[in-house]
Amino acid sequence: MRTDPFRELDRLTQQVFGQGSGTWSRPAAMPMDAYRAGDEFVVVFDLPGVNPDAIELDIERNVLTVKAERRPSATGDDVEMQVAERPLGVFSRQLFLGDTLDTDRIKASYESGVLTLRIPVAEAAKPRKIAIESGESRKEITA
């Protein structure tokens, strides 16, 4: 099996400067994307190789905390690891959610190494039409 010596240097640099594996007291960051799709806010975390049982989601006072732990996938006396490039350890991310999101109805799914959170926009934050009455006619404006 051939290896790229520069990739080894990159991994060594990450380990030396603290971007490697994380611990429960000092977790490493996990990559994410966030966007709004219609009436919901979607957050996608890349967590390949993480068992769904090793993912924790907590929310307290509009702060969403995601923690996950990647453990070695192949263990045993007859296992000899050839290449191990994915960092092991604990990963964490905190999101500060605004008051315009309905944190009571968050939905989470995990498929193919991707954790997806769907957070609906609160009803009070959605745009609505308000009817204006006058002596001659009725108009509607968007609030």
From TrEMBL:
It holds the Pfam family HSP20. SUPFAM superfamilies: HSP20-like chaperones. Residues 23-135 form the SHSP domain. Belongs to the small heat shock protein (HSP20) family. This is Hsp20/alpha crystallin family protein. It comes from Amycolatopsis tucumanensis.
